């Protein structure tokens, strides 16, 4: 939660409607970002001195209008923007007959903020030919009635043989040369990670992650009641000496890490550190769960940790960052002793991954279309990296030429929360470092800038220019006349 709370003004509207309108305006105005959590019903009811039923009705209205998403047992979250990056003010919208009488925007107001937000926060692939390819693939599939019928039936929990073979080919791109029997098809990397954690760990077990890491591990550790502990990182990634000390003290069961194009810092672990981490893992009987999702963008990624850990290494990958997140296809590679346990979790969790989506992914991988899409994605990354280098010339940030995001440490006197709020007010969304902090450690004053959230090059340039201007003006610029 970002701490924003609605204020109930004196109005003839029902209280639930006033709460819903206030949240809608905050979401449309950027005070609350996609993925941020709304307060629990009881907490907000107590803060506003209303009943929990009133809050429930307000949240229900927001969900009905597509502003928020309720997750059973987890809470209510701000929904993602519309496909074009905008968010229509579905609530608190002026009625057509009154719209003409409303005052025009102030001439000094940001036109960018008035029209829409430029999203530099969400890490998504850049537009390529995937939609046209999907349409053609579906046409080809529709011509094969026998296969279409088979794809509508129950499948093995780990996927059809051909789908697992395609997954093995995908993982081989990242240095994982294993037979299809050790590859399982999942509904994206997050689902794969959830299944692995449930198979490998039990409530109360300790799992390590880099001190800054993929936020999805935090939510899963909380749900599974795991003790998640951050391990020190530096500019090169996880620090082996810190990992050794933590293993001696806490006796962890597993380590989750992103050793290649680390999210969020973009660091890639050196060969020397990979060897050191693998040696520590074997000595402490540590299961290493390796997220290779970002590595798919590299033409020749370094050998994964799992290559050094035949009995301790589990790899998770997906097509989400390099091709299409909506396809929801991921692959898990595990040692043979773990395969059966993970299969059992998949079966109990969802019975099987969608065969239709898995077939589409398999065809793209086997036919080589995936290579074309990834090369287009790399070309987009190069163009957008060049735009960022031009606009942010003179500002120190970290990235990799193949990375779709930048890591921007903030110099004094900026603080991350203050900088993010200033950008939000100006129409630009970013992710602050505290979104990635593991445990209760302090977050550096830094932000992650994703290059793919802006759907056009012009929008990206506009957003980065606003960001550079905000950096230049400093916090005092917020209060100047």
What does this structure look like?
- The chain has 481 residues and is of the alpha/beta class.
- It has 3 domains: 15-96, Arc Repressor Mutant, subunit A (Orthogonal Bundle), CATH 1.10.10; 154-367, Type I PLP-dependent aspartate aminotransferase-like (Major domain) (Aspartate Aminotransferase, domain 2, 3-Layer(aba) Sandwich), CATH 3.40.640; 371-478, Aspartate Aminotransferase, domain 1 (Alpha-Beta Complex), CATH 3.90.1150.
- It is built from 17 helices and 16 strands.
- It has helices spanning 15-29, 41-48, 52-64, 96-99, 111-115, 130-142, 145-151, 161-172, 189-200, 216-223, 240-250, 271-283, 336-350, 355-367, 369-391, 416-426, 457-473, and strands at residues 68-71, 75-78, 118-119, 183-186, 206-210, 227-231, 233-234, 237-238, 254-257, 287-291, 313-318, 330-333, 405-409, 428-429, 431-432, 446-450.
- Helix 8 packs across helix 14 (355-367) and helix 9 (189-200) packs across helix 13 (336-350).
- The longest helix is centred in the last third of the chain and has 23 residues, at 369-391.
- Residues 83-115 have low confidence and may be disordered.
List the SSEs and their pairings.
Layout: H1 15-29, H2 41-48, H3 52-64, E1 68-71, E2 75-78, H4 96-99, H5 111-115, E3 118-119, H6 130-142, H7 145-151, H8 161-172, E4 183-186, H9 189-200, E5 206-210, H10 216-223, E6 227-231, E7 233-234, E8 237-238, H11 240-250, E9 254-257, H12 271-283, E10 287-291, E11 313-318, E12 330-333, H13 336-350, H14 355-367, H15 369-391, E13 405-409, H16 416-426, E14 428-429, E15 431-432, E16 446-450, H17 457-473
Parallel strand pairs: 3-14, 5-6, 5-9, 9-10, 10-11
Antiparallel strand pairs: 1-2, 4-12, 7-8, 11-12, 13-16, 15-16
Helix pairs in contact: 1-3, 2-3, 8-14, 9-10, 9-13, 15-17, 16-17
